[in-house]
Amino acid sequence: MVAAANIWLFFYSPNLGLLNRFLAVFGVEGTNWLGNPDMALGAMMALTIWKESGFFMIFYLAALQAIPSELEDAAKVEAPGYFYRLRRVILPLLGPTTLFVFVNALINAFKLVDHLFILTKGGPNNSSTLLLYYIYETAFSFLDYEYASLLTMVLLVILAACSGLQFYLSRNKVHYR
Question: What is the pTM of this model?
């Protein structure tokens, strides 16, 4: 996690960063990606998507390989169009994997602390402070363990509610064999 944050720190560097150098090729003036309150959280999101996408693609690859070839052959006979087969056969069979990925992506989004600690420390103007980082600061910087424990319980309730909502909303779309 720290290595990935350091790599992206090099990308986001205001003067020498790769993103600003790339923009300079096209004549666009670079920006301070992590120093601008309007862009800091978006920069953190880009880092997280980059870091997590490969992990989740492995699950999709395994789910695609688990689709029986008989189903694919039957779908080709019934519906010759690829996009129709994708919408009516392949995507419904990927429903459990998609639910798993959505729940894990939500949980991983809330536990983003190490990147914040390395890149912005919650700044500028607390624009990239997330709940778990705030809990970390409350517990270890301000030594208010009771309040940090309460916030941790609130975080767990929020995650349980969001995960339960995802399961509830997908109850008619996700079918297990």
Answer: 0.81
Rounded to whole angstroms, the Cα distance separating 16 from 5 reads 16
Let me know the angle formed at the C-alpha of 163 by 67 and 108, rounded to the nearest 5 degrees: 85
Length of the chain: 177
**176 DSSP assignment:** -
What average pLDDT does the chain have?
91
The amino acid at 173: K
Residues of the chain with pLDDT under 70: 177
* The two three-digit tokens of residue 175, written as one number: 């079918």
- Domains in the chain and their CATH numbers? 2-169 (1.10.3720.10)
d(CA 99, CA 58): 15
Cα gap 125→63, rounded to integer Å: 43
